[in-house]
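Technical note accompanying the year-one report. For the benefit of new consortium partners, we illustrate the data format agreed upon in the data management plan: each record pairs a sequence with a structure-token string. No post-processing was applied to the example shown here.
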Amino acid sequence: MINGVECNTQTEVVLQHLKKGKQINQEQAYELCGSQRLGAIIFNLRKKGYAIHNLDSKGKNRFGNTCNYVNYMLVNTQEQITRIETNGQA
């Protein structure tokens, strides 16, 4: 159960996480619900009409090398979208 909602699928778990105003990346999705295909879940949610924005990020992998990854965020208003595009964050 996430956000007071019973979640039966990985998609439902990811959606409820995003609806709480949180961002999610592949590592978090794996820890949260065992999903190894977050990109596919995001693709399907977008097809259903959810406005999910990509936030490009950099970090270190487990070997200490710099790598790029994506955080996904559910956006509800044009104001949020504008803020993300100008500042890189919500």
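Partners are asked to follow this layout when depositing records. The mean pLDDT is 86.
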